[in-house]
């Protein structure tokens, strides 16, 4: 059996899967991401223990554990170097901590890559050898499988589309130190910032009533609802976001030449409000040969994709390790 765990900013989602990666149990526990690395790791260990105890399995029954962790990492040494989703989190020995607690081979990868592993094996990427996944949540993440292999790059940071510069002058500042980054516009945080820009220009919107003027509580789902209620600011925000998404995807299709682009994450729940106009821009601005060989589709596995993909990754790494391969 395998265990997959997706370490999100709000919840850690865990699953127990059979040797052929069929899920038999799953649970989620609070991450408490704004506390410290010690608290988050304690919650992860408690969740793993609970998952095994409730399903009457022991560490001896588990072949490997896979972990999806947001942010930059040293995969070979099992270190989470930094994460935008967790406070007081730097150079955390995630893999060593889990292995010492349970004595089970444990493997860690970026959360977007494990999402793609899940979609590639069991979701929207089945049967494709060249697949790009873009996740639209609080921020924007991406991962790419090319010729049937995950792309990593020299520092395990390949396909950082969220930091692709899309606004050359006067762009929104980004935590990476640059400005105008893709993820500062096409994400939940980006959509809220776009609404705020319109309100600061004196435009009126129903979201001001919903949030009592405190936009920190505004969600992408509310913006979609405002769109459906014909709110002018929400309609324009969706238009600007989908336009930026379309140009970003056109760039990515030209760069990576995928057979399929999968759009996942909470913001993707906007559906065709967001994806329809983005596809139209891709059709006009991506290279003809590349775009005609590629489609843009929503993810299929929903909020448990990361957990499933982490188990897939655990199996892949366990098999590689048994065969003496590094990656």
TrEMBL record:
One of its GO terms (molecular function) is kinase activity. The keyword Kinase applies. The keyword DNA damage does not apply. It comes from the Bacteria. Keywords: Kinase, Transferase. Signal peptide: none annotated. Gene3D superfamilies: 3.30.420.40. Belongs to the ROK (NagC/XylR) family. This is Glucokinase.
